[in-house]
Structure formats: structure tokens, C-alpha cells
Amino acid sequence: MADSKQKGVTLIELLVALVILMIVVSFALPTYQGYVETSQEGVVRANIMSMEIFQEDFFLRNGEYANDLANVSAIEAEIGWKPKADDDTTYSIAASDGSEYDVTAVHPDGLSVCIRFPDRETCP
Fold first, then answer.
1. Enclosing domain of residue 106
2. Is residue 81 domain-resident?
């Protein structure tokens, strides 16, 4: 007589596996999103820091920092700086007295970074 037992996965086993998978994903997804946000901030900060070289060159030639520049094309025209990656982040240099300047970057995902130079401090 042949053994008539069937082998396979029961519905309960499948549901248990799905529940375990959902629990793992619920912990992993926020961590992943945090890593993505941190990497975006790193790219934006690196772009802002690269602007310092161009500003220092402008300062040496003109005796003051370029300021009151509202977008990347205005910054490029004034000091020659362009961001390393074109990710639709908006950059601006705030108006000041010429002895310091604030660079603000706003990423399309809502991340905003502002750094005050030449001190390299986060804007108040």
C-alpha cells in the first residue's frame, strides 16, 4: 500500500511566515529611511562645504563674501560654484554685511541645512 500523506505548506504555516516577515520589515524600514536621510544630509553638507573655497577666492579678490544670492545659477554666475550632483536641491546665500555668510540648502524631500561661514556653524 502506498503512503497517501501529502507534503506541503499549510495555510497556518504560511500566515506565520508572513507575520514574521511583517515584523522584520516594520523594524527594518524606519532604520533604512534613517540611513537614506543621513546620506542625503551628507551630500548636501558636502556641497555646502565645497562652496567655501569659491567664497574664499571671491573674498580675496573683492574684500568681502558674495551674498544675497537666491539660487544655484546666481551663485554660479557670481562665484563660479556648482553643486557636485544635480538632485534638485535649492541653494541660497543669505544677505549679510560681507564678513560672513549663511548658506541654506533645501532638498526636495524636505531636508533643510544651513551653515554659517567662515565659522562653519549651524545657523541659529
1. 11-122
2. yes
